Every structure is written in structure tokens, then in C-alpha cells.
């Protein structure tokens, strides 16, 4: 069976809404990448995430024409809220569809020393002090090309440069990229949780690629998994969606962080930042920094000492 790739290039504000819509039609998830992202990126050179490409794949079967029409109609209605381009459709052969998105995923530098390498490539210009993350996200979210992941990785690098050897919770781990980066930057241990079984498998595989499996524990679960345990963490990483972060805060997210610990929250657009910060305060956390890239924001917070 062949597959149909649908893609749209939109701004950061519209990307979340488009991804939610495509997820209703797409097979095994939706990919989001920054349009025109350069391979070499340093902290003062990160381009604004003005344009993002959202992609999904659905079967080219007898229902394909109806699905395409329904998708066009749904995008038309969405276009009443956001400027919306015409979607691009392309047929991908069965043997190629699972690999198709890899054409858009290349090695890239990020932060001061991080170098993200797709597992199927080699580095064109390795440097002695590179911290290389070998990643194959499969169908899980987290390639490093999305602004939310970039903002988190830069924050993680700064936190662990100042305070290494800490215990880290990667909540909603996706491909495991944040937790693996934390370990390679000096964290002592990482617990990675995700409700998606595909994400758990991808994280375990990527931990093996990066030779950090002994210090990374990955489980299928969520905040509720920790609510009745005695585990607490020094650094909390949450790259999900603003509405999910708010829900987690009101469910006791602050309780899993040790006093004096820090947290990084991403997946937030500018208009949601104030509401997220209010939720963090309700959870006993003190927001102290915002990092932004285009329409996206990462918020850093601390848990006060008693």
C-alpha cells in the first residue's frame, strides 16, 4: 500500500492547531520541523521560528479521496482563525514512507557543545569538545529541529554546566532527546516517562545508541506514576503542550521537585506564557526566566528552599 504525505508551512501560532488537526488523519503521529533550519547553529545565531512545516501520512487506499476532501474542509475552517496555505499532497511508496521524513532531518549544532546526529548519518565536521546526541526518534516527537526542543536543550546545557550530577525527570520524553542530553551533559540519573509505548521504545533505543542505558530508566507512565512514590528530582524537564502543563501543575507536579530544584517547561506559545506561569506558582514553583524563539516560549522555574 502507498501513503499520502500532507504538509503545510505555517507560522508558530498556527502549527499547534494544524498538528492537532492532522493527527486525526495521520498514521502514527505528526512531524513538526522548522522551515529552512541551518545545520550549524550557535546560541546567538538561532533563527526565529517564523515558519514551521507540519507533516502527516495517511493510507492511499479507497478512503484517501474522502480523507483528502475532509482534510481540506477542516483546514478551510481552521483558516478562519489563522492564515492557512493550501496543503501539499505527495504519494509515497510503501517501501519509502517510514523513511520519508528522514530526508528532512540532518546533523545540527545547538547551544555551545551539543551536536545532534541522526543515527543513519555521520558527522561532517566533528570537534574535540562536541557532545554528540545520536538520535532516531522513529514515530516519537523529538528530533531537535522543533523550537520547543531547541529551547529546552539550550536551557539543559546551561543548568548542567552550572550544576552537574543531579537527578532528572524527563516527563513526556518522546524520543528521549532531553533526558539523553542531560546525561551526556553530566546528570547523574534520568527517569524518562511517556504515556506512548512508541515513545518508550524510541527512548530506550536512543539511550542504547548513546551508551547511557545504565543511567536512564524509561517507563510508560505519567505524573500519576510518581504521585505515590518517594522519588524526587533536582531538575524537571517538561516539553509537552501548555494546556497539559497547566493540568499537571494542578495535579501536584511541583511535589516531585526537590526544594532548590529547577524545572524547564516548553511547548508554550507567547499568548499562553502568563497562564502557564500562574499555574506554576499555584504548584509552588517560582518562574524566573523566559526563553523565546519566534512564537515559542520556554519557561524556567525554581522550587524555593524552605
What does this structure look like?
The protein has 306 residues and is an alpha/beta fold. The chain folds into two domains: 100 residues, Alpha-Beta Plaits (2-Layer Sandwich), CATH 3.30.70; 189 residues, Rossmann fold (3-Layer(aba) Sandwich). Helices cover 31% and strands 29% of the residues. The chain contains nine helices and 14 strands. A seven-stranded mixed beta sheet has the order 10-9-8-11-12-14-13, with helices on both faces. The protein has a four-stranded antiparallel beta sheet with strand order 2-3-1-4. β11, α8 and β12 form a beta-alpha-beta unit. α1 runs antiparallel to α2.
Write a concise synopsis of the structure shown.
By secondary structure, this protein is an alpha/beta fold.
Name the beta content range: 25-35%
- N-to-C series of helices and strands: EHEEHEHEEEHEHEHEHEHEHEE
- Label the structural class: alpha/beta
CATH architecture classification of the largest domain = 3-Layer(aba) Sandwich
Please report the total strand number as a whole number: 14
Low-confidence segments = 38-46
> Mind telling me the CATH class of the largest domain?
Alpha Beta
Instruction: Report mean pLDDT, rounded to a whole number.
Output: 85
Note the main sheet: 7 strands, mixed
CATH superfamily of the largest domain: Vaccinia Virus protein VP39
Q: Approximately how much helix is present in the residues?
A: 25-40%
Count the DSSP helices: 9
Strand order of the largest sheet: 10-9-8-11-12-14-13
Task: Give the CATH topology of the largest domain.
Answer: Rossmann fold
End-to-end gap: 60 Å
Q: What coarse outline follows from CA principal-axis ratios?
A: globular
The whole-angstrom Rg is 19 Å
Quaternary structure classification: single chain
Q: List the domain count as a whole number.
A: 2
Amino acid at each position: 500500500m502507498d501513503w499520502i504525505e500532507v504538509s503545510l508551512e505555517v507560522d508558530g501560532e498556527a502549527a499547534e492547531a494544524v498538528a492537532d488537526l492532522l493527527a486525526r488523519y495521520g498514521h502514527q503521529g505528526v512531524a513538526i520541523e522548522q522551515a529552512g533550519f541551518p545545520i550549524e547553529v550557535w546560541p546567538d545565531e538561532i533563527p526565529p521560528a517564523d515558519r514551521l512545516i507540519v507533516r502527516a501520512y495517511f493510507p492511499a487506499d479507497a478512503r484517501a479521496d474522502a480523507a483528502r476532501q475532509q482534510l481540506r474542509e477542516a483546514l478551510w475552517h481552521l483558516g478562519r482563525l489563522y492564515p492557512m496555505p493550501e496543503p501539499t499532497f505527495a504519494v509515497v511508496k510503501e517501501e519509502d514512507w517510514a523513511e520519508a521524513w528522514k530526508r528532512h532531518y540532518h546533523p545540527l549544532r545547538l547551544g555551545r557543545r551539543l551536536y545532534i546526529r541522526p543515527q543513519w548519518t555521520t558527522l561532517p565536521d566533528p570537534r574535540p569538545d562536541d557532545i554528540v546526541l545520536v538520535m532516531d526518534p522513529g514515530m516519537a516527537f523529538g528530533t531537535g529541529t522543533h523550537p520547543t526542543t531547541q529551547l529546552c536543550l539550550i536551557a539543559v546545557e546551561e543548568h548542567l554546566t552550572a550544576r552537574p550530577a543531579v537527578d532528572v525527570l524527563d516527563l513526556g520524553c518522546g524520543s528521549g532527546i532531553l533526558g539523553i542530553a542531560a546525561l551526556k551533559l553530566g546528570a547523574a540519573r534520568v527517569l524518562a516517562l511517556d504515556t506512548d509505548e512508541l515513545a518508550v521504545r524510541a527512548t530506550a533505543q536512543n539511550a542504547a545508541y548513546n551508551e547511557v542505558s545504565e543511567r536512564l530508566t524509561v517507563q510508560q507512565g505519567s505524573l500519576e506514576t510518581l504521585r505515590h512514590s518517594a522519588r524526587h528530582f533536582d531538575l524537571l524537564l517538561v516539553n509537552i503542550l501548555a494546556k497539559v502543563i497547566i493540568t499537571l501543575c494542578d495535579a501536584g507536579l511541583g511535589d516531585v521537585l526537590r526544594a532548590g530544584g529547577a524545572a524547564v517547561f516548553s511547548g508554550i506559545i507567547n499568548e499562553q506564557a502568563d497562564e502557564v506561569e500562574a499555574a506554576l506558582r499555584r504548584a509552588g514553583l517560582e518562574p524566573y526566566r523566559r526563553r523565546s524563539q519566534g512564537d515559542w516560549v520556554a519557561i524556567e522555574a525554581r522550587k524555593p528552599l524552605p
